[in-house]
């Protein structure tokens, strides 16, 4: 048995196809007797409108495409949860795609979004390179940058101020009496979480006359999270370090494991502070002091801003920054 179509509903109700469409989308605009005829026909035929077909008619599919660089990273769990809750409230569905930071894969997903006529795209974490921007611009789909931003292009974004957050983390260590501070960071080619957090680290050292620590930095190899190697190199470079700032909680957790294996006590011998405040940071031993990002709020707010762009509403804040905070737990101690 073939599935009933909108034409079948119109024929049974003895109305036009446009009347059936109005009943499904703005029933108050149809007089009561015709509305009842259409609803009765829909019920009798068990008709369910096709979302893609409705999208062709109304130029809106109520669907948002999400690109995530690494779905395994726990950082994205609350971001996606925030996106999902805001989408449910505003009437959208999400299509979530994992890019693995692969350009061909990303472009394939973008083309798929175009074919599916998504109403908007939520682009998460990674920088916007010129060829990425040109491809997004070519598709003519509203884009929202989530936990990333672009200073080169006029693209709206929601994130924290990474430079200031890193500064605050290092200043917390300095205010706790630490004068030998190291850092495990992302490569500086990463303009979102690498370069910005490096700048925050360096600024805190400079403002507190600790320039001798500015070379106490080791970078992980891309996003491979080879923390044990990085930790070993850092300890070899500055064996008298008393505190280490890591630019993600995952790096901090890897560092804690390395220090435990080396029988170096945290925080008695070395204090460790992370970045993100993922769920696991509160159940580590010791529990991790970290910079808390409002990940749920970032996800939620990004959908609200994207909805405003889709609906053509003015948004006075192009690059929106949400507040961060230092969560003090057991992995750090004061030397004063």
From TrEMBL:
InterPro entries the record matches: HTH_LacI, LacI/GalR-like_sensor, Lambda_DNA-bd_dom_sf, Peripla_BP_I
UniProt cross-references to PROSITE patterns, sorted A to Z: HTH_LACI_1, HTH_LACI_2
Origin superkingdom: Bacteria
Alphabetical list of CDD domains matching this protein: HTH_LacI (cd01392), PBP1_CcpA-like (cd19975)
Keywords: DNA-binding, Transcription, Transcription regulation
Pfam family, one: Peripla_BP_3
GO terms for MF: DNA-binding transcription factor activity; transcription cis-regulatory region binding
Domain HTH lacI-type: 4-58
Record has rRNA-binding as a keyword: no
PANTHER family linked to this entry: HTH-TYPE TRANSCRIPTIONAL REGULATOR EBGR (PTHR30146:SF149), LACI-RELATED TRANSCRIPTIONAL REPRESSOR (PTHR30146)
Protein's recorded name: LacI family transcriptional regulator
């Amino acid at each position: 048995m073939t599935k009933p179509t909108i034409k079948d509903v119109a024929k049974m109700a003895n109305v036009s196809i446009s009347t059936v469409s109005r009943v499904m989308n703005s029933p108050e605009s149809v007089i009561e007797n015709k509305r009842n005829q259409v609803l009765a026909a829909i019920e009798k035929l068990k008709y369910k409108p096709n979302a893609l077909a409705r999208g062709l008619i109304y130029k809106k599919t109520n669907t948002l495409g999400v690109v995530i660089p690494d779905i395994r990273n726990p950082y994205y769990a609350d971001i996606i949860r925030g996106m999902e809750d805001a989408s449910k409230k505003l009437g959208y569905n999400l299509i979530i795609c994992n890019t693995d930071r692969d350009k061909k894969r990303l472009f394939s997903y973008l083309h798929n979004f175009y074919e599916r006529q998504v109403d908007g795209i939520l682009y998460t974490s990674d920088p916007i390179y010129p060829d990425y921007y040109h491809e997004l611009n070519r598709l003519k789909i509203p884009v929202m940058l989530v936990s990333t931003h672009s200073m080169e292009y006029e693209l709206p974004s929601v994130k924290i101020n990474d430079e200031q957050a890193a500064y605050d983390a290092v200043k917390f260590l300095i205010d706790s009496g630490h004068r030998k501070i190291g850092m495990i960071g992302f490569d500086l080619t990463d303009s979102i979480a690498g370069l910005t957090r490096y700048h925050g680290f360096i600024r805190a050292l400079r403002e507190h006359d600790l320039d001798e620590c500015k070379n106490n930095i080791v970078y992980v190899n891309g996003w491979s999270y080879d923390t044990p190697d990085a930790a070993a190199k850092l300890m070899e470079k500055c064996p008298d370090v008393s505190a280490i700032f890591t630019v993600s909680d995952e790096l901090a957790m890897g560092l804690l494991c390395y220090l435990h294996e080396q029988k170096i006590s945290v925080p008695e011998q070395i204090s460790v502070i992370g970045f993100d405040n993922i769920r696991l940071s509160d159940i580590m031993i010791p529990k991790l002091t970290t910079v808390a990002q409002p990940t749920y709020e970032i996800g939620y707010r990004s959908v609200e801003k994207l909805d405003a762009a889709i609906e053509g509403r003015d948004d006075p804040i192009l690059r929106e920054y949400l507040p961060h905070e230092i969560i003090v737990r057991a992995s750090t101690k004061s030397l004063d």
